[in-house]
Design a protein that fits this description.
Length: about 500
């Protein structure tokens, strides 16, 4: 199965599945765009409730973050519960604890009901301080978990060979093979008559008088009452350009010689944090390690992030071999909680974004929120995660700093575009921003020394893209759109690729 990067993730050994595209229906209740964890889980949930929906993706299922996640299913979040209590109140935190439990139950029920063989395992998470200075933060998290009734206790041990000062053990986590899960759900959706259309872009879109009309690249015209953008930031320009910021995380899988003492997950409290989990498959045990995150497009030497991660792993673990390394994109919200629900001012448009590092849980939670909203039932959870919410105190710092970062890139990257002034200086399999005879190019030289010349201007809002050497992609630092070496769009919010340029 293909993914939005050059590196192959641990999960991509699966063969892609062919979906029948010969359905004749053109009219649906709901169109879901994006066949990742959010879109697929929602499609199956809606189908089970009798809603006729079309699932559409411009690539194959799992092409985006679901194919590059490390597939933690957790009952706590990057925004810790002490922060959630402080910013949203205890009642909201309790609601989230209960809804998260429902979400984990929903995933487990899907696995059992559709007999999905996806390495699903339940386990515990060990959160630890690596320095004395992090103890207070860990104590606050423990106190909040206990206040909210989460089964969390201090632990004197860590089932990972990592040095630590203090640790807590949080019960009730799970993990799986995300693409096996996704394909299992899709299989059930398809067998039950669900309409799936992959490898088709949207070439025209209109939302008029409560009806969505869209045309796909195979010239079909579909209509629906509602649309769900399960694509991270919805396409085009909208308020989420400011309310979520794109980040990249780095991951490795290492084949282990022996079974670990228990299947478990762990992370430290650095910012960005480093995370690890064991994974059991038919052929043995693996360690999945991740971290060294950064804002998309902000780092020129992305290979260094793999190097740092390997160094951390080599210092602490014994293993047979590295079996995969890859990076993946996620979106951080302004106030720490995701935006799931109705798009402000567009009552028939729904979005789900800003999951942070908790995509498997929040992506699945969307399927417990959006079906109710489609029936005009606004639950307390829908209110809490509403995309229309305004949380000035919690969000002010992040919104300002992320927005500042985007506008800074808009100006600075244009001023510093002439890093290289000759195409000849570009090494093989490298990309550079080149200023040449008054024009700016994003240029990649392939392994045959052929130059691929593109406009360096991101079609979303005009920022200058940056070269990502490890994934061989052009990444926009402003809102995270990404493009391959031919300029083809990999990730939105841009809706078209980089323009091809003649020298
Ligand atoms: Fe917004 Fe590039 S993603 S300008």
């Amino acid at each position: 199965m293909k993914r939005d990067g050059r590196n192959k993730s641990f999960w991509q050994t699966l063969e892609g599945q062919n979906f029948s595209t010969d359905f004749t229906d053109l009219v649906f209740d709901t169109i879901i765009v994006g066949a990742g964890i959010t879109g697929v889980t929602l499609a199956k949930k809606l189908q089970d409730s009798g809603v006729k929906c079309l699932l559409l993706d411009k690539e194959n299922p799992g092409f985006g973050t679901t194919g590059g996640t490390t597939a933690h299913i957790n009952n706590f979040y990057d925004a810790s519960y002490d922060e959630i209590i402080a910013n949203f109140g205890e009642q909201a935190a309790r609601l989230l604890v209960n809804s998260t439990k429902d979400t984990l139950d929903h995933i487990k029920k899907n696995v059992l009901r559709y007999h999905i063989n996806c390495d699903f395992e339940e386990c515990d998470f060990f959160l630890f301080s690596a320095e004395e200075s992090q103890n207070e933060q860990l104590d606050r998290i423990l106190a909040a978990h206990q206040q909210l009734g989460l089964k969390t206790l201090p632990s004197n041990t860590l089932p990972f060979s990592l040095p630590f000062v203090k640790a807590i053990r949080i019960e009730g986590q799970a993990q799986f093979h995300p693409l096996k899960y996704l394909l299992g759900l899709l299989d059930a959706f398809g067998k039950n008559g669900g309409a799936i259309l992959t490898n088709q872009s949207i070439v025209a879109y209109e939302n008029k008088e409560g009806e969505i009309t869209l045309k796909t690249s195979d010239e079909r015209i579909f209509t629906a009452k509602n649309i769900v953008w399960a694509t991270h930031i919805p396409p085009g320009r909208n308020r989420f350009d400011l309310l979520v910021a794109p980040y990249r995380s780095y991951a490795l899988t290492l084949k282990l010689q022996h079974a670990p003492e228990m299947l478990a997950q762990t992370a430290d409290l650095y910012d960005p944090y480093h995370y690890f989990r064991y994974h059991r498959t038919g052929d043995g045990y693996y360690l999945i390690a991740g971290g060294f995150d950064h804002r998309t497009g902000d780092e020129r030497d992305t290979e260094k992030h793999f190097y740092d991660l390997k160094e951390l792993v080599n210092k602490n673990f014994e293993y047979q071999e590295v079996t995969a390394q890859w990076s993946s994109q996620y979106y951080v919200s302004a106030d720490g909680l995701p935006y799931i629900g109705r798009m402000p001012n567009e009552p028939n448009v729904y979005i789900a974004t800003g999951y942070g590092g908790n995509g498997m849980t929040f992506g699945s939670m969307a399927s417990l929120i959006i079906p109710d909203l489609l029936l005009n039932k606004e639950t307390a959870l829908a209110k809490l995660l509403s995309p229309a919410r305004i949380k000035p105190i919690a969000s002010a710092k992040s919104v300002l700093s992320e927005g500042w970062s985007a506008s800074q890139h808009f100006i600075m990257d244009k001023l510093s575009a002439d890093k290289i002034d000759a195409f000849e200086n570009i090494p093989l399999e490298e990309g550079r921003i080149v200023k040449y005879e008054g024009k700016t190019f994003a240029v990649y030289r392939d392994e045959q020394a052929v130059l691929h010349c593109l406009s360096s201007v991101c079609p979303h809002m005009g920022c200058t893209v940056n070269w990502n050497p490890s994934e061989k992609s052009w990444d926009c630092p402003c809102h995270g759109s990404r493009f391959d070496i031919e300029g083809k769009l990999l990730n939105g919010p841009a809706t078209s690729g980089l323009q091809e340029m003649d020298r």
